[in-house]
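Today's session is about reading a structure prediction critically. Students often jump straight to the picture, but the first step is always the sequence itself: look for stretches that repeat, for charged clusters, for runs of hydrophobic residues. Only then move on to the predicted structure, which in these notes is written as discrete structure tokens rather than atom positions. Here is the chain we will use throughout the hour.
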Amino acid sequence: MDSWSTILTSFLLQAQRGDLKTSSYPKERNGLKMKVSFGMGAPARIPWIAFIAPEMQVSKGFYPVYLYYKELDTLILAYGISETEEFPKTWPIEIMNSASTIQAYFDQEVPRYGASYVFKPYKIKFIDGKIEYTKSKDNKIATDKDLESDLSIITDYYKKAVSIEVTKTGSVLNQGLFYMEKQLEDFLIHNWDKTELGKQYSLIIEEGELLSQQYKTDIGFIDILARDKKNNSYVVIELKKHQTSDDTIGQLTRYMGWIKDKKRDNNVQGIIIAAESDQKLKYALKVVPNIQVFLYRVDFTLSEYKK
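Below is the predicted structure for this chain, in token form.
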């Protein structure tokens, strides 16, 4: 794995060139997803590198982020806050009480991300294809070790902050959310007989091969296809992912229609698995027959490791 200073230098040099490609950058760093952006369609005024937990999105969440203010020759490692869509939780109160916002740090209007909080600012100087990072606090040159250490400190703090939020009773992040769709899908399949679904429905297995998960049709893949234990009719199960209730209902009914036509099953049923219900879903279910909703929740427990 390349050193962090090498990756960061490549990022800054590319930002100067205006190249928007990001495929060469790592997808993970310090146990977090790593996202890089130089802009879409045209170079952004503030290129960035964000490090996000699975439950966060760059457009909705909080996360450590490098923000390169090219016009001010400054790179800021920040306690980032999405400015696209507000997330119900944010950085711990001690950060907001002690750290300066980016706008306050520059003492002027900035193009983007002014509400995020400063962790480490660096003045940037380009010298013969290399970069000199000067720590704004004491005007000392930041070494490769300093850069690596600064990133480790904020990402470790972030992971702890997110973990605390997950374990709080009633927290948004504790509502049983499986942050990756695949994780929930795999959990259901591997624990089928222990779930409410397993009591009523059977997975489809032919010649020792599981066919239920990501069942292939000519209009897409059904998340899980099962059979009713009482009448052997098909059951189409769809996870309500990062999409609207209308999208979920539309997708489910399309697959049910496919099963009805291709499998000649007029009694096909549909199930939506979601973290929570909403009014749109509630009203749709009043007029769409043979569909029910299951809500999921994860309980976190802690046990002592005994040597």
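Discussion point for the tutorial: The first strand starts at residue 28 and ends at 29.
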